[in-house]
């Protein structure tokens, strides 16, 4: 992990009147947006098997991260698809091989609800996209090494677009926003081709309810 202050030498020289805490928050906001749009930060829990009669499964996600979106969920090697909460089947629905899912996050855990409720043991495969937490004090090494330019451009755009400040610069903000968007598009393309930020230090801990 890289502390936010490690990014500041690429920001503060261009916004000399900007307080460091404001620059750090702009960095976090930029990194969150970058990760959400590019899905470059992905996490694949270790596969686990369903349990007959159990619909909900909890998985740990890396500390310092928030759930962004599901990349895929597979049951027994077959992809299944999300459904809105209001369309979830009732708990009295017959058990069968799951064909859909719904996810929620509770602090450092992600809950995967499967529908229908499994009637046997099926392998669960899943990949999710992550983003930094709003109160993050550091970012992953990979974001620092490979995607610093995009995140820094995004932070500069946010800082310079603030009105009525000594560091306000709408024209420069537009330039940095364009550069950040280009880097984000590049990251999205590379994530789809397989070069992604991996999170391998956290093992899955399925919780049986």
Any chance you could write out the topology, listing elements then pairs?
Elements: E1 2-3, H1 20-38, E2 41-43, E3 48-49, E4 56-60, E5 65-75, E6 78-82, E7 100-106, E8 109-115, E9 123-132, E10 138-139, H2 141-146, H3 148-160, H4 170-193, E11 197-198, E12 207-208
Parallel strand pairs: 2-11, 6-7
Antiparallel strand pairs: 1-10, 2-9, 3-9, 4-8, 4-12, 5-6, 5-9, 7-8
Explain what the structure shows.
30% of the residues lie in helices and 28% in strands. It is α+β, with helices and mostly antiparallel strands. The strands form two sheets. Strands 2, 3, 4, 5, 6, 7, 8, 9, 11 and 12 form a ten-stranded mixed beta sheet that branches. A hairpin with a 2-residue loop joins β5 (65-75) and β6. α1 crosses α4 (170-193) and α3 (148-160) runs antiparallel to α4. The chain is elongated and about 65 Å long. Mean pLDDT is 89; it is low at 199-209.
Summarize, please:
The chain is of the alpha+beta class and 209 residues long.
| H/I helix tally | 4
Element-level helix/strand string: EHEEEEEEEEEHHHEE
Instruction: Give the tally of β-strands.
Output: 12
| Largest sheet: number of strands, sense, barrel closure | 10 strands, mixed
Mean of residue pLDDT? 89
Strand content: 25-35%
Q: Class by helix and strand content? A: alpha+beta
Q: Unreliable runs, pLDDT <50, ≥5 residues?
A: 199-209
* Helix coverage percent: 25-40%
Distance between the termini: 34 Å
Q: Supply Rg.
A: 20 Å
Mass-distribution shape? elongated
